[in-house]
Write the structure tokens for this entry.
Amino acid sequence: MLSGTAMVCAFLSASFYMAATFAMKYWGGQSLLFVVPISGAALILAAVFEIEAMRTAEMGRTFIIILALEFMLTLVCAIFLLDERYTSRDILAVCLVFAGIVLLSTRDRHDTAVVAGRAMTAIRPAEQVAVQVLSETGRRTPQRAEKV
């Protein structure tokens, strides 16, 4: 689970990645002496906040959250600042990404073990019933083929 500080750092990192992307896209006609320092500074700040976010949280989860936040921020800014148009399907996809961020940032790592344990206890009785039914009907349980 990501702490509040890690989520803030992830959000700031995604914001600076997005700023670097906008700088590279819309200042393309400017001198490289102007664009490179601004993009470079934004990327350095993004990396600093990403490192800080990963310091207290799982690397994979933090990276996914930063990437998803960057995607969402870029899309929202493109809609409101650049007047780009997207379909309802695109907006639905953004909502699904947001739902994934919420699930990743709030899920406790022990939940998976509990759910898997419950699933296994539900499967065992079903397996026993299947073996009993097969034995009563005179059928054998399927066996793996042996190697020739």
User: Anything to note?
Assistant: The chain has a mean pLDDT of 76. The chain has two domains: 4-107, 109-141.
